[in-house]
Amino acid sequence: MVLAGAAVCVAGATWAANPIFVLNSLDATISVIDSGTWQETKRIPTGKEPHHLYLTPDEKSLIVANAGGDSLTFVDPKTSEVQRVVRGTLDPYQLRFSPDMKWFVTVGNRLNHVDIYRWDGKDLSLAKRIASSKTPSHLWIDSTSSIVYASMQDSNELIAIDLATQSVKWRVKTGALPADVFGTPDDKTLLVGMTGGDHVEVYDVSHGPAKLIKSIPTGEGAHAFRALGDGRHVLVSNRVANTVNKIDYTTLQSVAQYKVPGGPDCMEITGDGKYLLASSRWIKKMSVIDLQTGELVRQVKVGKSPHGIWTLDHAKRF
């Protein structure tokens, strides 16, 4: 679907040369989209339930976590060729490297654990499996690679894990169904999307256990974050409301809202900062939003229940 007057602008965009990857969770595939033509060029089989993905520190591999398949698929971010499959990683749902690139952390969404792996530049070795509360969902690691924050979706908690000792430092109660976690660059504040509510909870984590300091109204089903790359704003997707809010994390205010159909979930920002790419979870499409006008300018058909979305040609993460 292309809205009138927008196709030429988007189709002619020159922000990227590398493919866009969209994970189709219920199809166990990756849709590979040509960033020049906005056409799906192929689908890559993965393990069962690919949900999230993350780039290796050397930027040579994109790791796709197959939660139901207990495996990780390594894909070349430029050619989209599968490089290898690592099996025996139990229930990797969400994943993240520490900023110092020494640790790789996953959450077991169905098996209720957080796994901490050592990374030697090529291979992973399990350092510690930490039992968690119910349904760990999303991760954030602070800029000093000291603390892992994880949301517990079905026990309504936020926990902090000390990476040095690989033990739980604290746990606090949150609102209903906490999902993605975003930390501000100064490591003082955490934003947590409330998928069971219509807001983002803001926590002070500068001293000891997290303290709730604010609630930012956004939309029903507040879920995933993606920083705009301007050092000031972060987007949050509202899956039920079919909107995305722009939050100024220096003032903790919502400053704009975009309409995104089909249950927007994970998001990516193009390298030129002009377009928001969102996985429209319930309608098997990737939606493209012009961030200047707020218009839906294109939708690309993908597989069932699209979730994680990523391209090597993206805006900065802060």
What characteristics describe this protein?
1 helix, 318 residues, mainly beta, 4-stranded antiparallel beta sheet, disordered N terminus, Methylamine Dehydrogenase, Chain H
Commentary on this structure:
The protein is mostly beta strands and 318 residues long. The chain has one domain (7-311): 7 Propeller (Methylamine Dehydrogenase, Chain H), CATH 2.130.10.10. 2% of the residues lie in helices and 54% in strands. It has one helix and 28 strands. The chain has one helix at residues 7-11; strands at 20-24, 29-34, 39-45, 50-55, 62-66, 71-75, 82-87, 92-97, 103-108, 113-119, 124-131, 136-141, 147-152, 157-162, 167-173, 178-183, 189-194, 199-204, 211-217, 222-227, 233-238, 243-248, 253-259, 264-269, 275-280, 285-290, 296-301, 306-311. It has a four-stranded antiparallel sheet with strand order 3-2-1-28, with no helix packed on it.
Walk me through the topology.
Blueprint: H1 7-11, E1 20-24, E2 29-34, E3 39-45, E4 50-55, E5 62-66, E6 71-75, E7 82-87, E8 92-97, E9 103-108, E10 113-119, E11 124-131, E12 136-141, E13 147-152, E14 157-162, E15 167-173, E16 178-183, E17 189-194, E18 199-204, E19 211-217, E20 222-227, E21 233-238, E22 243-248, E23 253-259, E24 264-269, E25 275-280, E26 285-290, E27 296-301, E28 306-311
Antiparallel strand pairs: 1-2, 1-28, 2-3, 4-5, 5-6, 6-7, 8-9, 9-10, 10-11, 12-13, 13-14, 14-15, 16-17, 17-18, 18-19, 20-21, 21-22, 22-23, 24-25, 25-26, 26-27
